[in-house]
Design brief:
The chain is mostly helical and 109 residues long. It has helices at residues 2-13, 29-41, 48-59, 63-81, 83-95. α1 packs parallel to α3 and α3 (48-59) runs antiparallel to α4 (63-81).
Length: 109
Amino acid sequence: MFEFLSTARSTILGQARPDRQPGQPLVSARMAHLIGEFENALRGLESPEALRLLARIQSTRSKTDLWHLRANVFDLVSRALGQYAAQERMQDLNALFESSGPRTGPIPL
């Protein structure tokens, strides 16, 4: 599976885009890290549906796009490995998106 993932990733991420200058990376180092974490969240899944989601993850170019794919990751992992495993993996993914800024919420009376 991981050999396939490596090949799929290099194929998808290795395609040249017309709006990209030669030598310019397809994604930033930060996006590559985020994509890698999402790939890690799918470890152990080999269904065709999981491979399609992996391809979608690898083709994302924004943090927002990845944010929206979290629900798909949770759904696949929970069906394949159980809700507990899905919740653990989601905690790891959610931590990638937490802001260091002030949180909004109810104001104490």
